């Protein structure tokens, strides 16, 4: 991964150190073209170091084509959060009598203990005070047509057929990117992710979790701060164990040829209500952990949440997001087993109103960890401060439109798409933007 950016104004000057390393694959195709193309690519990277320039806002004011795809990928897969807060202290006291707990809860506690042992043991996990990780990602998305056979794709509206068919991604398919993650506690973390030159930042200072995107000002998540889901994808075994301590065991299931125990965790209704508003209701958010019977390690992480968007004068619209992450390539770092790769698949389903508004989008991310280290010296609270323009979301931040857009938020960008170039549709991008589906 490239860590230095050339000085485009003075070839003899020192190169700039990138805050987020960029995968070499992002430049392989450009090396066969010309110097102007390479320079243009670096200028794009440079312009996104500052997350809210006028040029960026202008560039995302058009929902069409590739920008809409990148916005969708970053908004959903970039920095999602887990359903509920996680304690940084793990209780190892398990009552040996299963009569004091339902059998499903007792089984889950023992499976978690086996996971702790497989991940390196309680002593090794407790020695980890902080964590730093650098990785690269490859993301891709495709839209499925609705029941009436109509879909919005890169070439505009298309029709015909009743079955749902996939529309393959154009522009070469996948978007490449890299990320840097810093973490001191489950509720004290900072993430910067760059995808094809466009950057998303997110973090938590222990009091509030926030995110910042090129198309949306910094905003806080509702409710107490929650951990980053990416950390639980094999990077933070201790937090994973703490999350599933109060889960229940559903039984066994074979995932990708691996026999696993299935643990399930659902937040209480009160935890969902604190994340809801007058216009947006979090109806459910369930998470499952699939732990290998052979190794004891987490093999797959899955979560699903259902959101209801209330619009005056019309039926509610529902968005159901299901995310599954397969963890691979475990390696031992300072006595702790860390997953160094994996694949996440996402299904985003919109339904409600009439069947013509139904749509389904599939997204996929393949990630690899290039570097990881523990107990980072000098990682102070100042490293996790939220942006100065952070604003907490309130009910007044959501407005409604009647000009064909199903749901538009206050941060809605004016649609200036030429013809029908919007591949995923304005209503889908706006809804994801307004409600922060990635941090629900």
From TrEMBL:
Residues 213-232 are annotated as: Disordered. InterPro entries: DUF620. PANTHER family: EMB|CAB81597.1, LIPASE. This is Uncharacterized protein.
